[in-house]
């Protein structure tokens, strides 16, 4: 169950990272409320996952999921560049996530 918590914690991390862009410096109420809610849920789920997963592994995977998801959504939603080197680096992060999962 801890891996499920960690996966969803990572998804909510993506939610709050992307949400920050839509808050317009926390001046828009609805995006701000949703962003803060995503932060709380993400950290809560990470805390549950840490009950049985090693800290270093869980934190690296949590941030990795958030990083990859945010980078990909940045390309899709905000027209950020999708250069070969950028995509390759995202692929390296995914490789690290998979590697950590396999050895944990």
Automatic annotation (TrEMBL):
It is a multi-pass membrane protein. GO terms for molecular function: transmembrane transporter activity. It is found in: Cell membrane. InterPro entries: EmrE-like (IPR037185), Small_drug/metabolite_transptr (IPR000390), Small_multidrug_res (IPR045324). Coiled coil: none annotated. Keywords: Cell membrane, Membrane, Transmembrane, Transmembrane helix, Transport. GO terms for cellular component: plasma membrane. The chain crosses the membrane at residues 33-50, 57-78, 84-103. Belongs to the drug/metabolite transporter (DMT) superfamily. Small multidrug resistance (SMR) (TC 2.A.7.1) family. Gdx/SugE subfamily. This is Guanidinium exporter. The lineage of its organism: Bacteria, Pseudomonadati, Pseudomonadota, Alphaproteobacteria, Hyphomicrobiales.
